Amino acid sequence: MRVQGAVIRVQGQTFAIVVVKPHVVQNRSEAANAIQSFTPVFRVPVVLMAQDGHGRPTFYGRPDIARFMSSVAMHRIPWREYTIN
Predict the structure, then answer these.
(1) What domain count does the chain have?
(2) How confident is residue 84, by pLDDT bands cut at 50, 70 and 90?
(3) Which one of 34, 38, 57, 84 has the fewest beta carbons within 10 angstroms of its own beta carbon?
(4) Which DSSP symbol is given to 84?
(5) 38-64 tens-digit pLDDT
(6) Which domain, by its residues, includes 67?
(7) CA-closest candidate to residue 12, choices 63, 51, 68, 81
């Protein structure tokens, strides 16, 4: 499986962002399952990101990281594609 994401290091914190479909972040159970499945892959806290039809992002996960990421411009995030087995 391939996913779009980023590993970010800021102020001594390292975390991952994984792009998911909007319905995932809108459903707490699905979001929790997604975070649980991606955490062993990235081995750091994982925050999910989905975009609405206008490209506006919504972040879901640890509140401190989600709040921080909501203030970061999308073009500044070092996106890349990850292959997950």
Answers:
(1) 1
(2) confident
(3) 84
(4) -
(5) 999 999 999 999 999 999 999 999 999
(6) 2-83
(7) 68
